[in-house]
Design a protein that fits this description.
With 1047 residues, this protein is an alpha/beta fold. It is 34% helix and 15% strand. The protein has a 24-stranded mixed β-sheet, with no helix packed on it. It has a 5-stranded mixed β-sheet with strand order 1-5-2-4-3. A two-stranded antiparallel ribbon has the order 18-19. Helix 18 packs parallel to helix 19. Keywords: Membrane, Transmembrane, Transmembrane helix. InterPro entries: BACK, Leu-rich_rpt_Cys-con_subtyp, LRR_dom_sf. This is BACK domain-containing protein.
Length: 1047
Amino acid sequence: MASISSSDNDIIAIAITDSDQIGSETAIEEVSISTTQIETWDLPSILRYRRVKVQAHRSRRVCAFHFLALFFYLVPFVSSEMSENLVFQACRTVFVFPWDAQLELQISIEWDLEAFLNVLKCIYGCPIDITGDNFLAFYEGALYFGVKFLLEKCKTWFSEAASSIVIPQIPLDNLISIWNFGIKSGNDFLLESCGSYLAKNFMWAISRKSFVDIPYSLLVICIRHPHLTMESEMHLCDALLIWLDANTGDSDGLSSTETNYSSILKQIHLSLLPLWFTEGKRRSCHFSKLADESIISVFRLLKVPPTDSIHFLEDGDFKDTRIRLTEHSKTMNLSSCIQITSAMLLLSLLPSTYSTDSKLRKNIKQLLVKLESVDRYLNPVSHGLLPMLSFKAVEEVNISKCGRLHLQASIECFSMSFPSLKILKAAYLLDFNIKTLRLLVQKCPTIREVDLTLDTSPVISEQVSDNFVVTGDKPVAVDKSSIYKSHLMLSNITKLILEGRSELCDSDLLHISKFCIYLQHLNVKGCTGLTDVGISTLIQRQHVTLQSILVCYTSFGLNSVLALCSSSHGTDDTSAHFPESMAFNLQTLHIGGCKCVDETSLLKLLSQTRMLKSLCLGDTHLTDRTLYSLAGSSLEMLDVSNTMVSGAAVAHVVYGNPGLKCLRVKGCRNLCQRESNTGEGEISSYFCGELEMALGKTCRLEELSVGWGFSHFSIEALKAAITSLREITVSLGGSLGEGALIQLPTACPSLQSIVLQFQVISDDIIINIMETLRNLRVLALCYCFGDISILGFKFSMPNLRKLQLERVTPWLTNKDLVILIRSFPNLVELALLGCPHLNSDSQQIISHGWPGLVSIHLEECGEVTANGVSSLLKCVALEDLLLRHNGPGLQKSFICYAASKMPLLRKVSLDFCDASEGCFDVPPDDQKCSLRAVKLARCKSRECGLTLPFLEPRRKPVHKETLVLEWTGKNVIKKVAKERPRLKEITDLDQGLSPMLSENSDALKWTEFKKKMGMTCVRGNDRPKAKAHVPPFPKNDMTTKNMMCVK
């Protein structure tokens, strides 16, 4: 209750008690301030007081009027008699007897002190700064005190904030408070503004923790708002499901209120959801029925040829297939939406009336036919044919895995509707070639980054016996299109990713270098068609701008090194002109697997680098001498995997680069040093003390991949360096032991990925990982030994996305699979090797429990495919499928059938042992869908165990060779590989670890371990020199003549 006091002073006063500091023991009691000094008020000092008395002199008539307004607002806070007395005395003081009234009027209130003082400053004309944190306090004060000027200023600020395209200025918590205030006060302006603000900044809002606190009424207005802005329909669906899970019960029986809440999901455009996402959400009680509708809708669209989709869309409701775009959209993400066609894209970029008006559809058909016509270069498309909408804020478009999109037509649409386009991601699209890239540059001159990634070759060059390029019956025609005849238009592309495009040749790279003259980042990893001369030519042309080059597993060699080390004047100077060479300014250099670079060339190259932040030298001829020559102090990533460097050399680099965040030394056998102590016999130990000391003193690692020399002592030595570790891989040669593995989750609480190979594990280790690392996303246990059971996997891990169990769960049954599904409900990648108790029923369990899987690897898993494959094909979002030694039930047409059922399937790996008819049909080009690579392995029978006269020798199939087929944008390449990578790693283990063991008990233990793991190693001298027999392919497919095998 407010109170009134009077005296003989000539002032009017308001005493404000800060409502936020009531009961505070630290606040100072009271201070008096005057409005005569309002411009010099020190608010931080004033706000330290619990109670502030603001005085205004009666002689300042304008002050009296302002205070009178405040008094009238405060009338409801006092009793009726006091309110009448207050109003009478205030009016008498200001209006009736201003010349002789000596009465002081004072009223005491509780209010937000800072807000009240700022309102008062605004009344007196002082400048104020409205922010997202104080908007509500200002608006509420202006509204209650009737300060119209401040009220209008608040409205203007909110309107500008809602329409701004910069980072949102109002925190989500504050926006919710503003909405609640608007509901209580019935303020339509606030309600409309909050809905508009949330709709335009929806992508930002869903990343906030308080998103689930948004009131349902506000969420509904936002979703239905015409300015709802998001990157993809998937983001909307995921956000709504998260909100529903947080605001409704978990039981299947939903209440009426919860059912009403779920009705908001009807606003989702189900036809625009990617298959993997929809399948993964099938188990949601809110979305299960809608998921079925979405899958049916997507496959209904897939049945229609892309060229006929415009006719199909005319017959239905186009609203569900319209891509959401607004004037505030910055990104359009259609990744993995295989159902998207050029017609759907075009209709989404036209006014909505064009999809409903039959008179206007004729123009749409004409434009679409023209966009997709073969001779469109000779007859350019007129931009005035249809009123295409322009979305000037769109800077990024992602059409990766949209295999049905007509690329040239899509680029025309981009050029007309996205004038500010800077980034295009078009990964895993075989048809996107250099000619298409030229068209993109011509039509979208603002483009800066282009990603054309493909899957890299499944085999490396030294494993291949012969490559055979097959073009089939299609003659390779000379391109006479005007795109190559036209004037060479220079592009503004600074980042170009061509990873995995094995069809690229030197002439393509030369053409790129002519029009991409501002390249700063080039990725041609796995582009096996490029030569050292071609790469060096591009480097010479990009000498001034190129800062990052990724050429892993290419023919990068001496010529390219010389090009990097040469000065800008074209001379080769390795000492006097470091600042003028490209190597000096390189920030990223990835040459892993480039065997053409010898030690001398590496030494020359690394000695000139000074600015490197990321360096990959894995699988190269790297030595200590070369690594010691590395200069610079900016490294954040270093990969020297599978090289001959020592721990001392790596430690030298670590000491000089304290900002190192990622270190990969897997497979470095010389990393550890050997000690001998002959006091009581020879004792061998392996340690990397110098490297561990360097890491512990200087680095804060986020990723670590180790092997040889990494032991249980390493965890303790690296404790300071691995507190922020997110990914760890311990592989061949490393031996952490049970104690260190139990300590690992505590030492690295932020771990999201754990890969353990050839380690000793137990239930206690697995349980500790599950209980501690709640954000774990990847768990891989490969060829580990020890006694583990299903008990270690009975913990809910909803964040786990990838599970890889190889030779560690031979006891796994169908019941155990059900437990894994309950514990890891959101898996997208599953790999099982050596689970002999599984059978054909396992298919149904896997497909029903994890319908959203994109990768399935099943090898030596009992009789999973003995009766064929049917249920697994229900995982319609699969992109990678490996089935080997699971039972001979695969039909000859399995590959073609699987590709037709799973439209995103890119990689298939099978074994002829599982073929019911002894061979497989390979789909022709018009039936391969999204297929990129097919691997068909062959085995040979080999005796195992002891051969005794009274026992029949046991024979076991071992890998002999693999036929690899790769589809490129131009042709089909067939390869024959002799050794699978996993077998090679086991062979390395056998050859590398055995010499380190003593000739007595240790050797016996190693032999027993191999028997226990069922490992059969294929050595080089075991390989037959005769040519391999490859089962015949259908007549309508390519021949396999002239193929040869690796010796």
